[in-house]
Amino acid sequence: MQNLLYKSAIFNWLVSIPEQKLRFELVDALYGTPKSIFAATIAALSVVGIIFAMSDDAVFAWIFCAFLITGIGRTLAITLYRRSHHDIDDKAATALWERRALIGAWSFAGLVGFTGAYGVLAHPNGNIELLINCCVMGYIAGISSRNASRPIISIGQVSLTAFPFMIALWMRADLVHVVLAIFIGVLFLSIIVICRAVFDNIVSRHSAFRRIESIARRDALTDLWNRTALFEILENRLSDVPDSGDTVALILIDLDRFKDINDTFGHQTGDAVLKEVGERLRSVARPGDEVARVGGDEFVVVVVGKDAEQSRITAERVFAALANPFQVGINQHFCGASIGYAIAPRQGATLEALFRNADLALYEAKQAGRGQIVCHTFAISERYDRRVQLEHDLQFALQNGEMSLVYQPIVDPRSGRAICCEALLRWNHPRLGAISPIEFIPLAETTGLIVSIGSWVLHTACTEANQWPTDISVAVNLSALQFRRTTDLVSIVVDTLASTGLPARRLVLEITESILIEDSSAARAILERLRDHGVGISLDDFGTGFASLAYLNDFPFSKIKIDRKFSQAIDTSPRTAAIIGGIAKTTRDLHIELIAEGVETENQLERMFRFGIYAMQGFLFCRPLPADEVRKMIGGPIMSVVGRRTADQARMAADRRRKAAS
Ligand code: C2E
Ligand code: CA
Ligand code: CA
């Protein structure tokens, strides 16, 4: 029984198939040294050729041909293998090449065995037998080490050579040959032991290597690939591939609310969420896809396939998988993800380009408000290139004199005269022409340039306003970053007023509510100091975003500007009209001046007027104009004729209503 077990253990070992990666490497080793196969073939041909010349036996001529065909076949197989570049994960291809190696090796070994047996029986007791004995035994001893990586091949080879030879020697039935036959039997057994030892050694080295590799290449928390491993895998996948029409897609995943979860519920909860994200990505990935964690809450899925559509589907499945809540203990957490991906033909794709494009797509997804999937397009790259170009050129725009200010009057429709002018920044790019502040102000903010540009705007606007009639003030826009970055905004403002000579009451600073949201107590302190110096504070873009009526109570605003989109909706939306009416009443009670921005039509003017809004800005009155033009017209009436007529009519209607009421 034990014998049987042992036998079956040997059998299992012989035919055992190691795990794919090891099997691939072992098979790869079989095709690794063509020189030894070439040398063995040449040696066999020489020996058989010599024997044929010595014996004149036609059988050896046939054996010679058989060796030649086998040698050519095996050399050809090596050449084809080297060109095949099959994937390490391709089990079928690995098995096929292993079979081919086995057929080649067994054919050669069988031929050696046959040659030995035939030679010993057909040409006894001479030089031919001596030659054959030496060569066959040398072959048996030597071959065990070459193919030890696949025992089934090497043991098969030794058996195919040794058994026919042993039988032939035994059949000679004299003492010397029987001893030789026994010797070869012992040699056979010891070769099995050697094969086993070599094979075990290879396997244990391999598993140790895999363990070390797993520590170095796996993310400890999720057991996904880490960044280093991912780069290596991608490099292998992309380098030197034949044109198969395959595409490769890189899907970048950034968790949207992971930081909040981590900060609020602690690292253990954060880790549990990340683990679960890893599991979900693994379950979405198909065989052959690679999943990696490349940063705190950043993951990557690589899809290689025939079909770009498959990548889109995978990106959507990833998105859907991460949209579901994460259960940690008794709590459910909604995390969500932003996804950017790029697809490229596998042949010719570079790692840098793929990552860059997927990164740009992810950036767009985040810019678009997160929770989006964006596929990289040429237009995205173009936008990025333009952004980089503008960011670079912006550094020199001020010193090159490319920046200027235009001024848009804020008009009192009752008098038709300007009461204030808003300074608006313009950038005339030497190559790209006029760039909108909507485009370049955010760039100036991200680069921090807004601080120096903002100081220049303040200084230029105050200098200019000094040329206007003394009852007209100037409004300057402040960005959130100027609030945060400038160590002492108040002293900059006070110094600018002092150096330009503009009275503080003629300066209005326009801010948006983003300043108030970020650090409201610091913002209130700064605004109060500015107010104490006599500077007016205006809340810009009111009616959009999160602006709330509570701000009016909490911060020292002297003016509020109703956002352009909101003012324009007064035409079409009765609800908006009602809200504006309400704001007008509230601000009047609080003695805060209300300004309607973006007034473009007479209808808007009339409705605003009826609500008692007597400060308006918009194309109906005047577009933003260069300083010299504003200087010429600022003393006189600003409103266009149409505007003035409407204002007159509105005033008369209001008067009539007042009289009727009293
Ligand atoms: P904003 O502060 O809301 O400025 C008003 C914008 O509305 C200006 O656009 C102005 O030209 C436009 N506008 C005025 N009346 C009308 C109208 O009747 N119809 C329409 N459709 N538009 C009208 P502009 O000059 O392109 O400025 C855009 C934004 O850029 C400004 O919005 C402001 O947020 C920012 N910005 C401009 N100059 C500066 C600056 O010196 N510093 C800072 N931080 N931001 C600035
Ligand atoms: Ca403004
Ligand atoms: Ca505005």
Description:
- This protein is α/β, with parallel strands linked by helices and 662 residues long.
- Helices cover 62% and strands 14% of the residues.
- The protein is built from 26 helices and 16 strands.
- The longest helix is centred in the N-terminal third of the chain and has 43 residues.
- 34% of the residues are buried.
- The site of one calcium ion has 5 residues, from strand 13.
Q: Could you give a quick summary of the protein structure above?
A:
The protein has 662 residues and is an alpha/beta fold.
Annotation keywords:
662 residues, alpha/beta, Alpha-Beta Plaits, TIM Barrel, 3 domains, five-stranded mixed sheet, 26 helices, binds ligand C2E
